[in-house]
């Protein structure tokens, strides 16, 4: 666990040589997106309907553009789609 401003945490980790970070968890991802700290996203879709739920990314202050770079199907049911941030 780490505490502090996200940009400072990421900068500190980058300075230590940690440049590829795995960010997971709804609120955590939303916080990183709001700070513009997500460069690549992998979204995995499974064919299970749970009903109800929360928006995947919540409210964002500004539009963010990502480009599809890869889509894979696993076990004939699970779709994993990868996107990279664009410079728009």
UniProtKB/TrEMBL annotation:
InterPro entries found in the cross-reference section: DHFR-like_dom_sf (IPR024072), RibDG_C (IPR002734), Riboflavin_Biosynth_HTPR (IPR050765)
Q: What is this protein called?
A: Dihydrofolate reductase
Q: What class of enzyme is it?
A: oxidoreductase
Pfam name, any one = RibD_C
Q: Which Gene3D superfamilies match?
A: Dihydrofolate Reductase, subunit A
Which controlled-vocabulary keywords does the entry list?
A: Oxidoreductase
Give this protein's Gene Ontology molecular function annotations.
Answer: dihydrofolate reductase activity
């Amino acid at each position: 666990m780490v505490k502090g401003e996200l940009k400072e945490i990421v900068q500190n980790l980058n300075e230590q040589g940690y440049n590829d970070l795995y960010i997971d968890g709804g609120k955590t991802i939303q916080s990183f997106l709001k700070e513009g700290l997500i460069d690549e996203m992998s979204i995995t879709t499974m064919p299970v309907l749970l009903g109800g739920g929360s928006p995947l990314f919540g409210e964002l202050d500004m539009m963010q553009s990502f480009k599809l770079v890869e889509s894979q199907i696993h076990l004939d049911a699970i779709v994993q789609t990868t996107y990279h941030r664009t410079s728009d």
